[in-house]
Amino acid sequence: MSIAIDSLLAFTVALELLCTLGVLAADTPFDRLHYLAPLLLGLFALAMALTLAKGFSPLTLKAWAVCVLAVISGPIVAHAAARAARVRQFAGWHVLESEKAEAQL
């Protein structure tokens, strides 16, 4: 059981480090948002390691509740961040000339 827990924790740490490096290496805020999605996988691995270590308890139920909340709120927060970045980049939320052909489809 200890090997499984250690493997899950090592996977979580490695994934978090890789995502952090991806965010640092990305050029635009829109590219950076793509490196945040795999963090949910690390969160699930951490909750699984906690469940294997402690069994089912109020602590592990809270960890799984955080996972569910992150899955629900993650796309909403990412969309809000992308929208804020676009507003800041183009000084408002409007259709650009280069996007008008796409908007008419």
Description:
With 105 residues, this protein is mainly α. The chain has one domain. It is built from five helices and no strands. The protein is elongated. The chain starts with a helix and ends with a helix. The mean pLDDT is 88.
First-to-last CA distance: 55 Å
The tally of beta strands, per DSSP, is 0
Secondary-structure class: mainly alpha
| Poorly predicted tracts of residues | none
| Biggest pleated-sheet summary | none
Strand content: under 5%
**Tertiary shape:** elongated
Mean pLDDT score: 88
- Provide the gyration radius in Å: 19 Å
Number of domains: 1
List the helices and strands and how they pair.
Layout: H1 2-25, H2 29-34, H3 39-54, H4 58-90, H5 100-103
Helix pairs in contact: 1-3, 3-4
